[in-house]
Design goal:
By secondary structure, this protein is an alpha+beta fold. The protein contains two helices and two strands, in the order H-E-E-H. The protein has one domain. Strands 1-2 form a two-stranded antiparallel sheet. The termini are far apart.
């Protein structure tokens, strides 16, 4: 579907509610605006927040918080 919106003097646009609902964009959600190669089209995508991924990936084995912290510190020292 094609929707019409207006660019304000400040360069702002309103994303129609139908599109916000389809993309699950709540108020104050960050989005990515991608300019296509031909520079005549833009693409809007929700920006993934790292917290949105919490619980998505299951560890192969359980690791204690202490061991995880030690591994992080060890890796940090290497760099």
């Amino acid at each position: 579907m094609i929707y019409s919106t207006t660019i304000t003097r400040k360069g702002q646009i309103t994303i129609p509610k139908t599109i916000r609902d389809a993309l699950k964009l709540p108020a104050n959600k960050k989005i990515l605006i991608e300019l296509e190669r031909d520079e005549k089209e833009i693409r809007l995508r929700p920006q993934v927040d790292i917290l949105d991924l919490a619980g998505t990936f299951k560890p192969r084995q359980k690791v204690s918080v202490l061991k995880a912290r030690e591994a992080i510190e060890k890796e940090y020292e290497r760099h």
